[in-house]
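Saturday, quiet lab. Running sequence design on the structure tokens for the scaffold JK sent over.
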């Protein structure tokens, strides 16, 4: 599986300027779909128990690797990695497809090329997922329409790691200057 190079902008080592992974601006020209609000995205993350990462990579410079590392180490989610070319990443088994997962994932987080997204949306539906989440840099209104028509929630052009960390006070762990000065250490919880 190929990963989207636009999504790789989210892979920010702690020493890198976080501005390159800024949150998306308001709707861009040509975009007609409107995604869930901040409270709705927070609700999706709060209700989820499992996340499948489609397009997971064993390459530490890929955004999917960075996101998988964060989700496995800083959250209580059951994380399932999907890539037909890998067998193990970060000590976790890797499944060849969503249909091979031992569970129905709550969220399918996608790191795939633009043209692959409608097919992945259908796979997410077939797997019983509740949410299709397209990573930062991924926008495909056809995929969103397919998923929403089947009753899935859809999030596009947002990094699930950034969203989770933002809602749970953990952006500073990834090198983001949150502007908050506190002597209290924040706990990362779901």
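Result came back. Writing it out in full:
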């Amino acid at each position: 599986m190929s990963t989207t190079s636009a999504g790789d902008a989210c892979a920010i080592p702690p020493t890198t300027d976080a501005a390159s992974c800024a949150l998306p601006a308001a709707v861009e020209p040509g975009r007609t779909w409107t995604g869930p609000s901040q409270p709705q995205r927070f609700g999706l993350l709060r209700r989820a128990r499992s996340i499948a990462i489609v397009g997971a990579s064993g390459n530490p410079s890929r955004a999917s690797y960075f996101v998988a590392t964060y989700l496995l180490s800083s959250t209580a989610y059951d994380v399932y990695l999907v890539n037909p070319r890998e067998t193990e990443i970060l000590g976790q088994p890797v499944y060849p497809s969503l249909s091979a997962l031992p569970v129905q994932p709550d969220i399918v987080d996608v790191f795939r090329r633009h043209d692959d997204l409608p097919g992945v949306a259908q796979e997410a539906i077939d797997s019983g997922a509740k949410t299709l989440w397209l990573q930062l840099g991924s926008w495909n209104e056809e995929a969103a329409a397919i998923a929403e028509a089947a009753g899935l929630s859809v999030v596009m052009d947002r990094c699930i790691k950034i969203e989770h960390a933002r809602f749970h006070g953990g952006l500073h762990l990834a090198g983001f200057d949150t502007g908050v000065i506190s002597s209290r250490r924040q706990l990362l919880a779901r």
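Notes for JK: The chain is about 25% helix and 15% strand. The longest strand covers residues 50-54. Ask whether to fix the surface positions before the next round.
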